[in-house]
Amino acid sequence: MKKNYFNRALLLFNTFKNRKLTNEDIEIAEGKAQHLDGKTNEFKLLISMIKDTFSGRYKMNKWNMSIIVGTIVYVISPIDAIPDIIPVLGWLDDASIVGFAISKLADEVDRYRKFQKTGISTVN
Fold first, then answer.
1. CA 8, CA 29: separation in Å to the nearest integer?
2. Is the C or the N end of the chain the one with fewer CB within 10 Å?
3. DSSP secondary-structure letter at 35?
4. pLDDT, average across residues 78-105
5. Cα four-point dihedral sign 21, 22, 26, 28
């Protein structure tokens, strides 16, 4: 049953990854970060990465950007594998998607952390 929810979550994530992200969406995401338990800091990092990319301070390829946008939109969307109106369980699928995104973006996360220290961005 858990695998079925994860597969549904991935299907929804792929649907959301092409959606446009607004400043309002980012504000909502920042508010929802607290519900992601062990993934809060990782989600905040993704938000920081996309904000720096949108502002032009950080350069990232479109594929990695789509993963981050899809993750943020998935977390803020009321339509996901387990709706957020179900406390705790509703946030578990969101945390799983954040973990999945972080695992796919390991190299990009390393580059971003170096960028935060040096202020120099390179695109892979």
1. 21
2. N
3. G
4. 74
5. negative
Phi and psi torsions of 116, nearest 5°: -60, -35
Which residue type sits at 93? D
Q: How far apart are CA 46 and CA 65, in angstroms?
A: 10
Give the span between the Cα atoms of 66 and 113, in whole angstroms.
19
Cα–Cα distance measured from residue 73 to residue 42, given in angstroms and rounded to the nearest whole number: 15
What are 12-68's pLDDT values in tens digits?
666 666 667 888 989 989 988 887 878 899 999 999 999 999 999 999 998 999 899
Token couple for 58: 């950080």
Contacts of residue 26, defined as CB under 8 A and 6 or more positions apart, other chains included, come to 47, 50, 51, 72
Given CA atoms 58, 60, 66, 71 in this order, what sign does their dihedral have?
negative
